[in-house]
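Figure 2 data, in text form.
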Amino acid sequence: MDYSLIQIKEERLRKDLLDLARFGEEAGRGLKRTALSEADLAARQWFKERMKEAGLKVYEDAAANIIGRLDPKSGPADQPCIATGSHIDTVFQGGRFDGALGICAGLEALRAMQESGLPIPCPLELLVFTDEEGSHFAGTFGSRAMFGQIKEGETEKSRGTGRPTLAQDLRRMGKEPKQIGQAVRSPSEFRAFLELHIEQGPVLETMGVPIGIVDGIVDLHRYLIQVTGQAGHAGTTPMLVRDDALVKAAGIITRVNEAIKSAGPDIVGTIGEIRVNPGAINIIPGEVEMALDLRSLKKETLASVKEAIGEIVNSVSKARIEPILVKEGVKMDPQIRELIKSSCRQQGIPFHLMGSGAGHDAMTFPPLNIPTGMIFIPCKEGKSHCPDEDISFQDAAIGTQVLAETIMRIALANQPV
């Protein structure tokens, strides 16, 4: 098979990425395109039009996932599909390429495959998942909804007082949250899933290697820490009798950070979100909520640190901790890893086998026995989830070329991967 007939058009990919980056862009402050915000809805509509222009049949499921399908010109259309994709939503003040690269690259790969004239013997799908970043409550919502993994009441929860729930935003766009179950699909509908993503770290750029082949994704656990004190007048309440929730929370933060660092290099943890109530300069804080993010490729390390953090929180009066998200780490499919390697080797592209410290929609598929692969490209200075997030468009084109060729290798295999 002459895979060289598949030719990614770098300028076309670049234009898509930069056009998409305009949605939610704030000068000097990155992107504000949180899931189902007005900016996100506008970007989704724009991208659906690009999918239709590329010849895909486009529809939106009950969980607001966007699905673009390309049926084979020869062979049955009801056989399992090979899917690729990512997400279009961003974190608050996020970057231009996290998630966006995966969907734009997937679109360009499907264009190039059609333009190659090579026979595509099975259905191909491009998936744009809803709220991967978890701006409402918990991340990877869309991919989990696709396989019936949404917990009861999850759509009615929010990340904080005054912030919309996912159910509210779904209703705002004309969807009924109680019908999310209609989005559920059988794993048997999928032959494989591939996701192209920026690395979100410095390894590939430091090594000077354009492609990372992911062998596994970390366990990702998130917790809500709540600390209660007693609100009071900031000018009339003596320091010695105060029960300041923020002061107590500050002590928890420093002790949690020390516990994580002392566990060694195999785990990372972040308290990156704090809400103080009532939140006024002249009122002693009466309540603090904090979100803790823990990640590790080693389950035993994660378990040990979780226990230590639990003891820290329980040692503080009127403080408690509860899990809000638990995603077990996964391994990528070894046969797909080999096919990605073959695509790289045929083009003379250096690659590096590596783990992913970030969670992705690709995590949802391996536990369902759907063969899954991930491809990374470098991001400049390893920066991500910030306005400075940047990539080389040449690297993006290389990654998209590898993605397209790997999809074709899977499609043309005599037996399912």
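Caption note: The chain has a mean pLDDT of 94.
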